[in-house]
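Sequence only, no structure available. Ideas?
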Amino acid sequence: MPTDPGEPAGPVARPSVTTAAGVLAFAQAAATALATAVVVTALITIASFGSVETARQAGIYIGSTVAEGWVAAVVQLAGIVVLIVAGRRVLSGTGERLYLTAMGLQVVLCVYWLIRGAFALVPLVLLIMPLLGVVFLLGAASQEYIRARSS
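Reply:
I predicted one. Tokens follow.
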């Protein structure tokens, strides 16, 4: 029984937009995992040729140095982990900052791949989920849910 008439009578129901934001984090993690698998496969293929120049002669071009590709792959892997943790925490009504950081990292990665000349459709599609997730999380219903869960 609430002691104050303004207090909710029971647990606060999670709004659907908050659920959508959490699910978008998981979907973004899956899409990033797929993109990372493609990058790592390309890097391993280039390594099997023995040199970047030999790979280019064979018609395989990654658009950047191999070291830069590995750094991007590691950052993407870290992003996947952060996305999963952030999605879980948002669903429980916490982790707003972690979620925004994770989605921000995804936006940076998408911009990086656009600048590096990746097939433009992939980074643009991967850019949609983080932007929608942030809009959902910063909406009034999600913010009210997070405030209620943190108090």
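The mean pLDDT is 86.
Hope that gets you unstuck.
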